[in-house]
Amino acid sequence: MTAPGHHPAPWQPGAVRDAAGGLLALGLATFVAITTELVPVGLLPVISADLSVAESTAGLLVTAYAVMVAVLAVPLTTATRRLPRKAVLLGSLTVYTLSNVLVALAPTFAVVAVARALGGASHAVFFSVSIGYASRLVRPHLAGRALALVTLGASAGFVLGVPLSTSLGTAVGWRTAFVVLAGACALSGVLTALLLPPVPGGGAPPDDGARGARRSALAGATSANALVYLGHYTVYTYVSVLLLGAGLAAVAVGPALLVIGGLGLLGAAYAAARLDARLRQTTVVTLVVVGGGVLALGVAYPGTVGTLVAAAVWSIGFGAVAAVFQTAAIRTRGASPDVVGALVNASANIGIGGGAALGALVLDGAGRGAVPYAGAVLVGAALLVVLLARRAFPGVRDEAQGRPHA
């Protein structure tokens, strides 16, 4: 029992094994957060039909959510910087729960959009804080593995969350899917309260002659991050529409997303094994696989088998994306961990919201078959940024010469 007037010793960063409980809690919370963000993706056809709006309009549920994150990530992270990090995470999980309940009960599309915007505000804080949180649980040279393990929760959101909610929503109604998700968010909050150790905030970058270079490197990492998400969500927001257009029955979309998403765990595992040793190589390989898969999807569509195979390759690559760019950004030391997390969060959601909107324009204009090509061009642009920004994505030789921090 702690003596009166004394506080528990602050958390000391150590090995990944020492932080296993905290990383598990963050991974579970990330799972429900990603599922909350993306659950409309698999349910766009049934939501649009039930609320009498076009599929492209229903896709704006992803856009509205992402816009809130992009606009609020930095301001809310800054505003809450003096609050205990764990309390902020628990508060955000509570708001996720409320948002999903409101969506389930909403009588109109407008109310659904408002409830989703509330979830987006929570998301703005959650991922900004959780990225910095995971990096603080372990010693600095292990940050890549810690972030990759936490982002397994994001992969699980693709693998289990979206496909299962899609299957559930198709079978018994999309509102029921949101009720179940609200329960999962509440449960995650309880587990986070029990398993996650408190960590201090702060952690400003060194104030030395390399400050400008570090900020430039951070800008390169977040710019590439935004482009990858922009390309991915131009296509992924409408993946259920594409799968239906490729000949899948409505009841098969959920299981197909489950299998395709499951392959993303391979990419996440690759990132966990390689990131701390070979950041640049891992990033390039990841983007080549993502871009190649999306391009192949455009070539194969509307053939059923080819579409599914290309989507599988794309999913494998995307499983590594979150960990790759979070690690690159954190390692630039261009800002405090929480501010870095906010910038990564904001840039990703600029891509998510912009991708959903761009995909809608392409879908309504050029048609379904053109959507993957638009996404592939944007992923290719991200790869170009990575190849040019050596400070943000250093190779082994650059690391030895100290370039990432110079």
TrEMBL record:
The keyword Electron transport does not apply. CDD domains: MFS_NepI_like (cd17324). The chain crosses the membrane at residues 21-44, 56-76, 88-107, 113-134, 146-164, 176-196, 217-236, 242-272, 284-302, 308-330, 342-363, 369-389. InterPro entries: MFS, MFS_dom, MFS_Efflux_Transporters, MFS_trans_sf. GO terms for cellular component: plasma membrane. One of its GO terms (molecular function) is transmembrane transporter activity. Residues 22-393 form the Major facilitator superfamily (MFS) profile domain. Keywords: Cell membrane, Membrane, Transmembrane, Transmembrane helix. Pfam families: MFS_1. It comes from the Bacteria. It is a multi-pass membrane protein. It is found in: Cell membrane. This is MFS transporter. It comes from Promicromonospora citrea. The lineage of its organism: Bacteria, Bacillati, Actinomycetota, Actinomycetes, Micrococcales.
